[in-house]
Structures are given as structure tokens and as C-alpha cells.
Amino acid sequence: MNKWSPRFLAIAVAAAIAAPAQAEIAIDVINGSEVSLEGLIQADGNWFHNDVQDLNAATPAGNDGKDSEFEMRRAEVVLKGKGGSFDWTLGYDAKANKYLDANIKWKLGTDYLMFGQYKQPNSLEELSSTRHNDFISKAMATNLFGVARRTGIAYGNDTPNWGYQISAFGRELTRNLAQGAGYGGRFYWAPMNQTGSIFHLGVSALDYDTDFDTQRWRVRPDADFATVRLVDTGNITNTDRIRTIGAEAMWIGGPFKVQSEYLTSRVNRTKATSAGDFTGNSWYVYGLWNLTGETWGYKSGVATTPLPEDPAAGMWQLGLRYDATDLNDVPVRGGEEKNLTLGVNWYWRSNFKFMVNYVKVSSSRYSSTLRREVDDDPSILEARAQFYW
């Protein structure tokens, strides 16, 4: 892994302190479109307390093999234009060398038509803003079955209390990344939507081609720098299509938020094999408490995170998450994993966020070598420093 540069981070922090606190930088108005620039810089640290496997193994990832890892996680720059009948977005992550949202949205009242690359309509956590993730690593369900950005065309509608999106998509815009053409949709309903009192329900479904007729489900143990996956199906061959169905719920009451999702994914195999289809599932539930009293907003079927009421003191959050994954479906024995994550977040002023997470992992997977189930129960300490505008 490429190491982040302390000098680069120092320059970024100095620029942030010198600049006025704001969420975006206004550039110009061109043909009625208000053009602005947004950015996100994240630096993470992971400390691994291993049990059976070495979560930061030196091979094949090329890590140093130590029980800690420090790296730049994201370095995103996003150019946006808003105004009139069209909004447009062009984003790039210099750390991952890939395009982010790159699309044009044609607004037709509350309806819209969108072309380009955008997040596909599944997974509430994936659709939420990365800069306001409630935990450092997204839940296993999201990382396993959430389809993120793909190029395509979408039609949707967003009102204060309900909305939907249907989408047809292909590959990811950046070469050699996600592929597999498909289609899907999401519908959400918020029967309660008032300041400090929100109740949200949603369902989603995606159906798409597998990549090169092979599918592999595996996920890191809620630690983005881990090089080892404790649950892993291995390559499932002679596959045809993947169908993922999701259900989501969220409740906000003043300074409290409870959010949960369930995702199940079925891999259909071709007639060329006698092996049966494979189904895996994953879910999470978490609670978040704004200790300083702020509440959340709600837009387009996702929660929006507020600025601190007292910028100098900042906004403090305490969170607890439980997530579980089951990748066993005979004859495939990918394993089971259950994680408990405790998190503390501090939003300071308008441009900074600091996070600390402790993850306790409980996993079990069949070993063909030992011919028995092997338990592996490590723990991980994580930290993140974030600057955004």
C-alpha cells in the first residue's frame, strides 16, 4: 500500500485553518449554473490484535506485516454545478485513482432523469455521504452486497415523504473496476418527517451479470486496511446473474438515531454446472447518540448530518453497531462473522472530523485442511482524521 505523506496532510490542515469554515467553495456562475468545489481528505490508522490469522499479513498485499497500518484513505475533489433545469457533478479520488460521481441530472419538478456515473439504488449506508459515515468502516452488509457507482441512466422522484429511483447500468467509469450490466430500483417512505422526528422505511432490488462468469463474496472484518478476509466463499464458477434484495429502516428522535439494513444476494449458476445456486446474507443495526444535542435532517431518502451548534466545542457522537454475515450455503462454506463496534465521533467547527472505533470480531469458517470449523476472534482499534470542505 502507498503510504500517505505527512507533508501533504500538514499542508491540507494549514489550508483548512487559514480558510473560512464552510462546506464548499463557490467558484463562479456560468450560464445560470452555480459552480462550486468540494473536497475530502481522510487519514486512517488501524491497530490489529490478531487471534489466528494475521489481519495485516505482508503477502500478497505487500504490507510490512506489522500489527498497525497508517495510510491516506481518501483524497477526493468534486466539482459541482447547480441551477436551472440541470445539475451536474464531476468527482475524482486521487488516492484510489478513480472517478466518483460523474453525471448530469435533468430536473423535472420533483422528478429527475440522470445520465452518467452515480451510486446505484441500493443500500442506505452506501447512498449516505462518505464524509458523514457514522463508523470508520461501513458495515459488512454494505461492503459485501452494496453496488456503488456505475455508469447508466436513472429515473426517479424525491418528495419530502417518499421517493423512488429505477436504474439501468453497466460498468464503472474507471477501467478495470466493477463490471456487469444490470438494472434495479429503490423505493422509500417516510411517514414521519419533521425536525427531530423521522421514521424511514425502504426496499431495494438489483439484478446484474456476474463478472467473467465468476463470483467471489468476501469482506474485511470492519477494518478497511486489513489484508485478510475471515469470511470468503472463494471463486464460485459458472455463474450467470446476481440478484440482491434489501430492506432498510431508520428512526430519528431528537439526538438519537437507530438504523438497520438487511441484504441478501443470490448467485444464479448456468446450466453448464450441476452445482446449485448460492445465497448469502448480511445485516446490521446501530444506534447513534449526539451527546451535544443536535439532530439530523432528511433528504432524498437519507439522513443528513448537521453542523455543530457550538462550532468551537464541536459535536460529539457515541455509536454502537452490531453486524453479521453468513456466507455458508452448502456446498460453499464461506463462513460466518459477527462484529460489535463501539465508536466516538467529534465534528469540530465546519471542516474537521475525528473518529475512534473499537471492533470486536467473532468469526467461524470451515478449514478443508483441518476438516473442521476454525474460530478466529481478533479485535481492532481504528482512528480517522478528516478534513472536508
From TrEMBL:
Q: Which SUPFAM superfamilies match?
A: Porins
Q: Please indicate if the UniProt record lists Signal as a keyword.
A: yes
Keywords, comma-separated and alphabetical:
Signal
- What residue stretch is flagged as signal peptide? 1-23
Q: Which Pfam families does UniProt cross-reference here?
A: Porin_O_P
Q: By what name is this protein known? A: OprO/OprP family phosphate-selective porin
Q: Which organism is it from?
A: Tahibacter amnicola
